[in-house]
Each structure stands twice: as C-alpha cells, then as structure tokens.
Amino acid sequence: MDISARKLSEGALVESEKRYRTLAEAAHDMIFIIDSEDKVQYANSFAAQSLGYNPEDIIGTPRETLFPADTTSRQKSFLQKVFKNGAPLYSESETQFKNHKLWLGTMLVPIKDEGGEVNSVLGISRDITATKKIEAAIKESEEKYRMLIENIQDGVFIIQDAKIKFLNEAFAKIIGYTAEELVGIDIQKLIAPEDLDIVMERYQERLAGKDVPKEYEFLMLHKDGATRVIVNMLVGLADYQGRTASMGTVKDVTEHKLMEAELQKAQKLESLGILAGGIAHDFNNILTAITGNISLAKMYAQPGLEVFDILTEAEKASLRAKNLTTQLLTFSKGGIPVKRLSSMPKLIKDSCSFALSGSKIKCEISSPDNLWPVEIDEGQISQVIHHMIINAQQAMPEGGIIKVKAENITADAEHPLPLKGGKYLKISIKDHGIGISEEHLAKIFDPYFTTKQEGSGLGLASAYSIIKKHDGHITAESKLGEGTTFYIYLPASEKKIPIVKDTGISSASRGRGKVLVMDDDDTVRLVVGRMLGQCGYEAEFAEDGDKAIDLYKKAKETGQPFDAVIIDLIIPAGMGGKEAIKKLIEIDPDIRAIVSSGYSDDPVLSNFKEYGFKDAMAKPYEIAELRQILHKVISGI
CA 487, CA 407: separation in Å to the nearest integer? Predict the structure, then answer.
C-alpha cells in the first residue's frame, strides 16, 4: 500500500509539534496540559522549575500533589468548569509554591477529540504578582485619598465648564447643601452677586493660562438665599477625565473674619484709650473745680435771678463735659468698671424713662420673672442703654414704639457668638426707624464715626468698650427703611441680690468730724474744702503723701484724729495714694480712707478694698455724692 501521503502528513505533524514544543519550552509562562483524570500530561520547563521539579518528574503526576490543598481546590473548580462547558476560562489567584507565593493569571483552553468531547485542558499561567502589587498600591492610595477627602474639614471641589463635577460633603455643608444637590450645578449660582464678576473673571483667566491669584476670599450664598458665607479659596488647574478643570479647596472663614473685625475695633479703642488716659487726670481735676464751684455758687444765688440761671447753664455744660470725659475714659485701661450685683429690669426701666422723658416715643419693656442677675457697673451700663434708646428715638422722628427685651440665654454651639460658653443676659433694643445701610453698619462702633450732623461719634464706640470690659458682646442688625435692633450680652451671675438697707442720709443731712484731703491740685483742695464745709465737716489739706502721713500722725498723737481721709491716687511730683495708704495703715490699721482719682490705669478704683480703702470716688464728684460716701464710711454702714 502506498503510504507516502500519510508519511508526509505525519512528518508535518511531528514538525509542527516540534515547533510548538520549542516555543513552549522557550516561554517564560507556565504552560501545562491536564487530562480528564486530573493528571499532568505536559509541563514546560518553566512550569516545572517554578514548581520545583524536573520536567520528566511531573508527567503523569496528579495535579493536586503539586500544590497545597487550598490552591488545588480552586484550580480543580476552574478545570471542572472548562471540562463541563467546553469554553475557555480566565482566572486570577494567589498560588502557593514550595518556597514562595505568586499571583498567577491563568487562561484555561479546552482540548477536544474528534468527537468534540473535551479530553484535556491546556493551561497558560503568567506571573502577575508585580501587577497585583501595583493594583494594591493604587487601591490603597485611592482609599487614603478617599478617606482624606471625606474627612477633611475644608471643602474640596473640581469645576469644569463652570459646573461642579466633584465635591466632598464639607464643601456642601459650608453653604447648607448636600453633595448630591450640588453635583452638576453652575458655580455662578453659588456666588454672591457682589463678588460674582471678580470670581468668574479669575476663573476664565486661569483657564486661559494667565497669572491670577491662587488664593483669595469671596462671598458665597447659603442655601437659605440670604446668608453670606465668607470663604477662603485655594485653587489651581488639574486634568479631569482628559480635560482641564479647576481643582481646589474652600474654607469657611466667616467666624474668623468676625473675630478679626472685633480685634481691630479693640485695637482702635485701645489707641484712643492711651490718648484719653494721658489727659483725663488733669482734665477731671479742672472739671472738679469747675463743677464744685458752680454748685457752691448756686447756694448763694436766689432762684429766679439771672445769675442763678447763668450758673445753671454753666452747670449743665459741665455735666456734658463730664459725660464726654466718661466716654473717653471708657476706652482706656483706667475705665475698669466698678461692678456690683444688679438686677437689670429696674436699671432698664429707669434708663428708658430718663432717655425718653418728654418724648412722644414709647418704650415697651419685657423680661421674665426669673431673669438672671448680673455683676455690672450700673453707671456704665445705664449709659449704654441710655445711648441705645436715644439712637432709636432719633431714628424715629415721627414717633413710634421702641421694644426692649431682656432674656436668659446660654452661649453654646447653637449661639455662635464671640463669647465663652456659659449663661448670659441678652438685651434687645429694637426700633422701627430709618435703619442703617450695610456699608455703615460695619463701622458704627468705630470711634468718631457718625452719620449725624451733631454728635461726637463716641456714643456707640463707648458702648462697645463698656460691654467688652464687662466680658460681654454688643452687635447690631439693620435694614434700611425697616429699623435697627441692638443686641447686648452680659455674663450672668450665680449670686443672689442682697437686700439693700436704707442709710437714712439725705441731701440736707450734715456731718460732723475732721476730714484730711490729700490732693496735689490747689484748686481741687480749695473747692473740696468748701464742699466739706457745706456738709458740716472740718477740713485739713496735704499736697502729697508725705505731708498727709505727717498730719495724720500728729493728729493721732494729739488725741484729735481724723474721722476720714480723702486721698488722690496720682501725685505726679510726690507720693501718691497707693503708696501713702500702706504707710497710713501702719499708723492706724482702722483708718477710714477714701480713694479719689480723675483717671488711672491701675485697678485701685474698682478694687479699692484690696488696697485698704473703704470706698472710692471718681472725679468730678458733686456735694451729694461726697456727703453720702463720707456718711457711709464714717458711720461704718
């Protein structure tokens, strides 16, 4: 039989197998064939070496003996699917070898007989360990990035075509939205109209490659449509889905800006306080002489005479000067409030009644019965409320009602105020007048700022300083044509207000005894001496501490001691009150001393008891105040 054709065919097949075997042996992939009995029919050299065997030792070996149980069970599952379905299958798995572990990517291909049945499976496995490590590193990096973006307090965004393509929850929260609500929205809808042009101009210029600021501040609109949020934005360009986009962060700096503005106001007031402190002492000495002499002169003039009226007008002018000085002193370190426990309802009522006396404006006052007490300088707080009411009155020239409300509040997360947490008394003073423009509202507490033709511009600045020195806060809100509301916050006290006893002293009461007056100003000594004479006291004088100590010692030694001593705190050319009282206490531990001063940045006036004084008088003072304090000190009430 001629078998030439068959021999040629067999030779071609052998040659073909030889070529494929050569390729398989040269490959750096693991190539193997597994039969239906789960035995290895063939394994190339690379596969054998990877498994730690010689190629000839693997042939006919059950596959499961070559791998650990967990690995071979996964392989068997994949092989069974190929035998069953007769279709190729790709899988990735971590495979344990004798001395090492690798990630393999394996393609299983069914080999079929002439009848179409799968009798074996060709497998090609490639080491993908490096790729898996890279994928794991990328996944870990992405997870860290995701955690950072989700947990960072700053808002993160990507903007493309002026629309938000990506943002985190922090960005949405800043302006009151959820992240889902903002995806795809036009960024122009979120920017306050007053800043829209500059923000969009910089956005377009940045995309065009121009040099524009990477960091700046602007106003965004809150979801409520009214609130403006001040944000600080740091932005640059980035590639997003193959196209240029703006990527950056935003931070809510609204509270920081408010605190910064508060600090600037405080610095302005402190500068003014330094100036006020430099002139206050001398000015008040002069004013003491003026007011004292006027009040004395009026005692010798008959009411109804022209001279009496002239003195009355001069006295009014002096009182206005005193009020101006008080406002100036409030800015200085010496304007420390002399606090005492007080109930606000009566103070509010009295201040409102005095301010609106003879006016067609009415005042509605409301407060709960359980209103917390406060520790305040009643004179200073009365001055603040008085000025607020006068402002409200002037804002309503046609008349109307001013609503004053006092209430208890607790400063916490629900009350975002520049105050320490705790209990506060909140006073609201609301008018329905002409209102204040947004431009002017930011400046109303600045010294010398005023929109009135008449006025010093110190009223609200003084109020601001007073409230600050009481560890409180004052602010305002207003709309043109609708009115203005001022809010005052004062720390509440846990103490109970004691019952005050009636001293029984009246303006007509006369005292008895000797009083030593220590003051370096001869005009003050003269007028105070006359005032003491009118009150029934005998006066002696000393121009400084050394002289006062000498006079006090001699009076005590002769058995005719002084009943009280009025000591000026500041003596520029000699020993002042702070030093003198120490030496006087050594002479007489029971000395009844009253400290007096026009101004000092020393806390002696507000804490006089700590320095050995029985009471304090701020210059200028009137006969009535002098009489009352002397009576209290001498009688020991």
Answer: 11
> To 10 degrees, what angle do helices 344-355 and 378-395 make?
40
Q: Which of 8-17, 392-401, 542-551 has the lowest mean pLDDT?
A: 8-17
> How much of the chain, in percent, has pLDDT values that exceed 90?
27
Q: Which domains does the chain have, with CATH numbers?
A: 19-133 (3.30.450.20), 152-252 (3.30.450.20), 257-326 (no CATH), 344-491 (3.30.565.10), 514-635 (3.40.50.2300)
Question: Cβ neighbours of residue 384 under 8 Å, at least 6 residues apart?
Answer: 462, 463, 466, 467, 474, 488
CA-wise closest residue to 350 among 317, 319, 312, 389? 389
Over the stretch 292-306, which tens digit does the pLDDT of each residue have? 888 888 888 888 888
First to last CA, the chain: 149
Q: What is the DSSP string of 558-607?
A: TT---SEEEEES--TTS--HHHHHHHHHHH-TT--EEEEES--SSTTTTT
Q: List, in sequence order, every beta strand (DSSP E) within 64-168.
A: 89-96, 101-112, 118-127, 155-160, 163-167
Q: Which two structure tokens, joined as six digits, stand for 57? A: 């030792």
Mean pLDDT, rounded, for 229-247: 89
DSSP letters spanning 374-436: EEE-HHHHHHHHHHHHHHHHHH-TT--EEEEEEEEEEESTTS--SS-SEEEEEEEEE--SS--
Query: Does the pLDDT of residue 185 top 50, yes or no?
Result: yes
Q: What's the pLDDT tens digit per position in 393-442?
A: 888 888 889 999 999 998 876 666 778 888 999 999 999 888 888 777 87
Rounded Cα gap, residues 562 and 546, in angstroms: 16
Contact between 415 and 409 (Cβ < 8 Å): yes
Q: List, in sequence order, every beta strand (DSSP E) within 241-380.
A: 243-252, 340-342, 362-366, 374-376
Q: Which helix (H) or strand (E) holds 272?
A: helix 254-299
Q: At what angle do helices 254-299 and 459-469 cross, to 10 degrees?
A: 110
Give yes or no for a contact between 621 and 288, defined as CB atoms under 8 angstroms apart. yes
Residues 383 and 94: their CA atoms lie apart, in Å, by 83
Calculate the CA dihedral of residues 442, 447, 452, 453 and round it to 10 degrees.
-150
Give residue-wise pLDDT tens across range 142-156: 676 666 666 677 888
